[in-house]
Amino acid sequence: MIMAVEASIVSRARERAMDTSECVGCKLVMPAHPGPTHRYIRCSPECWSLFGEVLAREFQNQRLFRAVHQVTVDTYAVQHAVDHPAKSLTCHLVSLFAILGRSQMQDEDADTLVRFVQGRAKFPRLEAPADMGPMTIFDVAIAGESDHEVVVRRWARHVWDAWAPEHHTSASVAREALR
Ligand SMILES: [Zn+2]
Questions:
Q1: Exposure string over 122-132, b if 16+ CB within 10 A, otherwise e
Q2: What is the pLDDT of residue 154?
Q3: Distance in Å, CA 11 to ligand 1 centroid
Q4: How far, in Å, from the CA of 177 to the mean position of ligand 1?
Q5: Looking at the predicted structure, is the pLDDT value of residue 54 above 90?
């Protein structure tokens, strides 16, 4: 009897394990819920769906949109670096550099920077970090509207810090663009 109960617990645990998915980019584990994903950003459907919810919140709130929309998009993109096309990855990392890692840059410099990267024919080979930090889009999704901005910035800072070995690459692209 005990063995039968144990077997049933084991099989339920297995079922539960099979019913979860792990995002290949940010490692978010969620109950499996099949759905669409992005054309080239590799992520789980569950993670992509949360990103959609977060974007919807920003599109519906002009204050949030102005404050952090670009940070949200850039952070999500660089946290999902597996097989990510070099042009897109570089653009988002350099944009994040302009927002979080810059020193003495002006807003117009940030625009120049992103335009410069988009116009480049060649892109640096970026080595993605194995550990993308302790936060994911899930943390933003469960934050209320009042905490949205602060949680996005905290998440972005963790992801930017995870990319520390490539900060010099972002900085050198920036120097090239602004000289
Ligand atoms: Zn993800």
A1: ebbebebbeeb
A2: 97
A3: 28
A4: 31
A5: yes
pLDDT of res. 29: 94
Count of CB atoms situated within 10 Å of the CB of 66: 10
Q: How far is ligand 1, taken at its centre, from the CA of residue 9, in Å?
A: 30
- In this prediction, residues 49-71 reach a mean pLDDT of 96
Dist. CA 123–CA 38, nearest whole Å: 22
User: Measured in angstroms, how far is the CA atom of residue 53 from the centroid of ligand 1?
Assistant: 13
Distance between Cα 80 and ligand 1 center (Å): 6
- What gap in Å lies between CA 102 and CA 174, rounded to an integer? 9
* Percent share of the chain, pLDDT over 70: 87
Q: HSE, CB side, 13 Å, CA atoms: give it for residue 151.
A: 17
Model pLDDT, residue 8 = 61
